[in-house]
């Protein structure tokens, strides 16, 4: 039978060195705890509709829309919520579709599976937006001989991620303890706490609640506890809601392509960009702290995925 899934899976065997070599033509050094990158910046989308619909500045949505409208990609592999707030992979090819899928998901979605929908409509050049365990797929696929597949990922947008939750968090925590039915949830974010926006069950009025993360930990997806990649290090650009402003996206610009697209967006007046190292050094310190902590998840037993001596001693 076909072995492509096992060959391209970036968590199935030794994978980081292969992905580094395929993506960057070199290995990440021990000091590059965030992976290879060119700049770390803070970005805000100027389109108010995108900024309001998107998460923390709206750059993810704005970036994919720019790539679609300027012939970088034919479709974006994204995730949508169904009527019960369950995530499902799919594709977006228009502004309206991107706005419909805007915002963060904190339950897992295998966005790469949207490739089936892309095939049905003949979309060849794909933009993938997802967390690190998926954004490493294209370079791993390229390094393991599935190059025809790998080359279809024309743009890879990574999301900073320490964990995702299982679907049980909706029924067993939000509904059972806080009385928030799953279908009434309108938005979720994490800023030190789980932030939940929802509609009132009786009146439909907008409501908001904060939940301590310690109450959420038991719903962590088991596989996430073994992932060492906080910063989606094999993306063209990695995005996260870390920073002093709730309306700002922190972006780790990694590849020439990511740098080119962001620069053109700024030149066209679509985004504002500032240097994060100057404007928000606390955000830089935080992402480094979280990345170092997550890299300790690498197993170090004989026969397991190796880490460098510097990392095993921390």
Q: What report would you give on this structure?
A:
It is a single chain. This protein is an alpha/beta fold and 314 residues long. It has two domains: 4-162 and 225-312, no CATH class; 168-218. Helix content is 33%, strand content 21%. It has 14 helices and eleven strands. The protein has helices at residues 4-8, 16-24, 48-53, 59-69, 95-100, 115-120, 132-135, 137-143, 147-150, 168-178, 256-267, 276-279, 281-295, 309-312, and strands at residues 39-45, 75-81, 87-92, 126-131, 153-159, 185-190, 193-199, 206-212, 237-240, 249-253, 271-275. It has an eight-stranded mixed beta sheet. Strands 6-7-8 form a three-stranded antiparallel beta sheet, with no helix packed on it. A hairpin with a 5-residue loop joins strand 2 (75-81) and strand 3. Helix 2 crosses helix 8. The longest helix is centred in the C-terminal third of the chain and has 15 residues, at 281-295. It starts with a helix and ends with a helix. Mean pLDDT is 89; it is low at 301-314.
């Amino acid at each position: 039978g076909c072995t492509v899934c096992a060959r391209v899976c970036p968590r199935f065997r030794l994978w980081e060195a292969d992905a580094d070599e395929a993506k960057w033509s070199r290995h990440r050094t021990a000091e590059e705890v965030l992976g290879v990158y060119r700049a770390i910046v803070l970005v805000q989308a100027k389109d108010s509709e995108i900024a309001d619909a998107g998460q923390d500045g709206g750059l993810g949505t704005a970036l994919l829309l720019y790539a679609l409208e300027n012939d970088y990609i034919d479709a974006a592999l994204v995730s949508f919520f169904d009527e019960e707030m369950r995530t499902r992979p799919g594709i977006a090819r228009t502004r309206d579709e991107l706005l419909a899928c805007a915002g963060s998901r904190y339950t897992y979605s295998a966005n790469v599976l949207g490739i089936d929908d892309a095939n049905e409509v003949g979309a060849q050049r794909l933009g993938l937006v997802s967390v690190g365990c998926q954004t490493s797929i294209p370079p791993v696929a390229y390094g393991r001989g599935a190059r025809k597949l790998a080359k279809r990922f024309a743009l890879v947008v990574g999301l900073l991620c320490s964990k995702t939750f299982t679907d049980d968090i909706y029924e067993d925590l939000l509904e059972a303890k806080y009385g928030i039915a799953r279908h009434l949830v309108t938005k979720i974010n994490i800023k030190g706490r789980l932030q939940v926006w929802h509609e009132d069950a009786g009146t439909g009025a907008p409501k908001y609640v904060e939940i301590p993360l310690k109450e959420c930990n038991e719903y962590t997806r088991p596989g996430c506890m073994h992932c060492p990649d906080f910063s989606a290090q094999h993306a063209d650009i990695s995005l996260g809601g870390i920073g002093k402003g709730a309306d700002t996206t922190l972006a780790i610009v990694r590849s020439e392509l990511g740098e080119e697209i962001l620069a053109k967006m700024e030149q066209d007046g679509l985004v504002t960009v500032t240097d994060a190292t100057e404007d928000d050094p606390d955000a830089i310190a935080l992402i480094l702290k979280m990345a170092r902590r997550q890299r300790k998840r690498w197993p170090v037993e004989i026969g397991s995925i190796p880490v460098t001596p510097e990392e095993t001693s921390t």
